[in-house]
Structure formats: structure tokens, C-alpha cells
Amino acid sequence: ATIGSKRRHKGNPRALTFLLALIWWSVCSSNARANELADDFSEFSLDELMNVEVTSVSLTSQSVMESAAAIHVVTSADIKRRGIRSLPEALRQVPGLEVAAIGAADYAITSRGFNEAFSNKLLVLIDGRSVYTPLFSGVYWDIQTIPVELIDRIEVIRGPGGSIWGSNAFNGIINVITKSAAETEGLNLRVGGGTLDQGYGYSSFGGILGEDTHR
């Protein structure tokens, strides 16, 4: 009984070695991908930066310069370079938005003042679908746990947009657009930790079912 107890506490060295190798590979691949995106972004000209395509203003694809609204776009490259781990953190860099942490996982986010936990004058969409709760017509930010690795871009409109999007769009619109299945092929893995996020992880696997079908 004593020998068996010692063996259980000793652990499996092969499993530990495999886990460390997996973490090292994940960190290296993530850093390489982030550097690649940063290099591509730095090579854009000023005209290319101003011609970023958006769809949240008029429900059709158009450039930022042509859109008739004050709009700001947070790209997936911005999220990777800043090490952002959640959707509210990604919105902190948007001009005109007020983002306040009011608890361990609760946030109060609004535009144009009057920020509180139950603010309901800012419409939040994920891929064009509203995520408000019928309880107070606002958003519970602590349950919006979409992985930032799946975000393609975040379009934020500052100002009223009720004529196009309807209710809750009095102060602005936040539209989170995720990546298509074709952009997330293969194994995607990320693990990490720190003083704030003591441990987190994300994994996904995508494949091709047909010539025009992905999963």
C-alpha cells in the first residue's frame, strides 16, 4: 500500500513532458502569428487603412471613409498585439466608449455618458444578432464569453442608429463580427496564465466537409 501511494504522488513524467512541449508550441505559434499580422498591418498605406470595409452603418459593405457615421473598427490584429483576453477589454481602446469594471467579472459599458450596470441605450450585436437580455433590455457582459481568437473585427458606431437597427441603439451600436469557419481550419490552441488571469485556455478544431463547406 505504501509503494502504491508513492507511485501515485510521483506522477507520469511522460505526460508532464508532453504538456510542457504543448504549451511551448502554443506560445511559439501564437507569437509567430501575431508578428506576421503586425508586419502585414505595418505595411498598409494610409489609403488602405482608411478603406477598411464595414457593414454596420448601412447594412451594406462600404469603407470607413464612405460611411455616414462616427465608426471605429477594432481588428483581430489589434486584439493580438495588445494581449486582450475578453470582449470588454477590447472595447477599452475605442474612443467615446466608457468601460468600467464594477466587479470581478461584471462591466458597465456605454457611450455618451450615463454609465451604470443596467445601461440599456447601447445596442450590442454578435454577427448582427442582438444579445440583450429581456430583463432590462441591456447586456450582461459577464456572460458574453466569446473567445477573442474567433473575433474578426468589432465595429463600434457612436451615435444614434435606431432608424436602421431599431431599439436599444440610442447611444450607439457595437457589432462583433466573428471569423468564418474557413478562417479557423486546423487545430488552434492557446493556454496561459498570470497574476490577473491565473489560468486560461482555448482550443478549437476546424476542417473541410466539401469544396464550399467548412466546420
Q: What key phrases describe this protein's structure?
A:
alpha+beta; 28% helix
- Termini gap: 49 Å
Order of helices and strands: HHHEEEHHEEEEEHEEE
Give me the Rg, rounded.
Answer: 21 Å
- Give the quaternary arrangement of the chains: single chain
Structural class by sheet pairing and helices: alpha+beta
The count of β-strands is 11
Q: Estimate the strand proportion.
A: 25-35%
How is this structure best summarized?
The protein has helices at 2-10, 13-42, 46-50, 76-82, 87-91, 162-165, and strands at 53-54, 62-63, 70-75, 97-101, 107-111, 122-126, 129-130, 151-158, 172-178, 186-192, 200-206. It is of the alpha+beta class and 215 residues long. Strands 3-8-9-6-7 form a five-stranded mixed β-sheet. Strands 1-2 form a two-stranded antiparallel ribbon. It has a two-stranded antiparallel sheet with strand order 4-5.
List the helices and strands and how they pair.
Blueprint: H1 2-10, H2 13-42, H3 46-50, E1 53-54, E2 62-63, E3 70-75, H4 76-82, H5 87-91, E4 97-101, E5 107-111, E6 122-126, E7 129-130, E8 151-158, H6 162-165, E9 172-178, E10 186-192, E11 200-206
Descriptive account of the structure:
The protein is α+β, with helices and mostly antiparallel strands. The protein has helices at 2-10, 13-42, 46-50, 76-82, 87-91, 162-165; strands at 53-54, 62-63, 70-75, 97-101, 107-111, 122-126, 129-130, 151-158, 172-178, 186-192, 200-206. The longest helix has 30 residues, at 13-42. The model is unreliable at 1-10 and 34-39 (pLDDT under 50).
